[in-house]
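On to our target:
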Amino acid sequence: MAAKAKNNPAGPDISKKVFMTLILLAVYRVGVFIPTPGIDAEALAGFFESAKGTILDFATMFTGGALETLSVFALGIMPYISAAIILQLLTVVVPKLEKLSKEGEQGRKKITEYTRYLTVVLSAIQGFMISVGLESMTGASGEPIVLNPGWSFRIMATITLTAGTAFIMWLGEQITERGIGNGISLIICAGIIARMPTGFGKTITLIRTGEMQFLVAVLLLLIIIAVVAFIVFVETGQRRIPIQYPKRVVGRKVMGGVTQHLPLKVNTAGVIPPIFASSIMIFPATIASFWDVPIMKMLSDSLNPTGVLYNLLFIIAIIFFAYFYTAIQFNPKEVAENLKKNGGFIPGIRPGGNTADYIDRVLTRLTLWGGIYLAVVCVLPSILTIKMHAPFYFGGTGLLIIVAVAIDTAQQVESHRLSRSYDGLLKKGKLKGRRG
């Protein structure tokens, strides 16, 4: 293997990036087990035990178990995602931000800087509200969760939770820059994967105690395999629009006359819509769960993951963000202009505005089916929880994130490997040319 890595110019570089990614993810997992000062761990565990099946159970999955122990990473990466959503929505309506988004790399850096500041503000607000809410909460036996309530605890908890989210944000950016894959998605994925052994253990316990039949567990496993296959099939699916380039005479040679394809993914937005939708749903419901107030209690109960209202709002949010993020990522007018400049055209469609309208129609239909696909996969956990008494959220948002992130990371590794291989071939070609 060492000889193979030596001969492959991409080998050592990819190994370093993968190693860096694993190290940074390991740092994240270590932080999940560092508790916030001033909390009674046993009382907190009792509180979360009584909250099984609620929005807190769903939020715990996204934090990799950090919320359940109220560690320094208890807020997870959700404040950063919420800040990114707010900035992207404001980009559409605020002229200054819209101008920044069109200024290339410098504009994107400035928007990223604003996103960081807003993340800190949201984290501080959410951390303070949770700290205040915890002071009135008790464990299963009635013991208080907060050992010494007061402003000292509130300030300490707010600073700790805010710093934890800021550190996770930094880890995600470092993974994206120095490692392989999208750092934020990988952190969420790592947290979900870390919770899966616990889910398997609960399933085995339910089977042993007779609370879940063995055939039901087998059927649940088959459903998971089918969902994974379905996700892989759709995520790799494309609609290929034929692009024709006319023949051109260059000197004595005839160039062009080839037919290529413009690939449009069925799910152009990827895994972003369910992550955004989950962030929007989890943010207010998590805050409400920590406040022992009738109105907050009603809000928390109404946003139960197994409830009709939650799933209806979740589906609407997913489809909305599917269209919204696709519109940000893909501009039909820009694609049509580039085709026109290079002499390309879609057979039967006039170049320019007609081409842009055609691509937009095709993309709109694809995005609708992509949004429906995401919604179906993401609401499946509620059906499994209600009908089959599944002990954790299998088959839905978590599984979608794991599979989609794995596919995206594998594609980035392959792309990087091919790029490095071509660089190696070019260097060898230059050396041979010099010898000649």
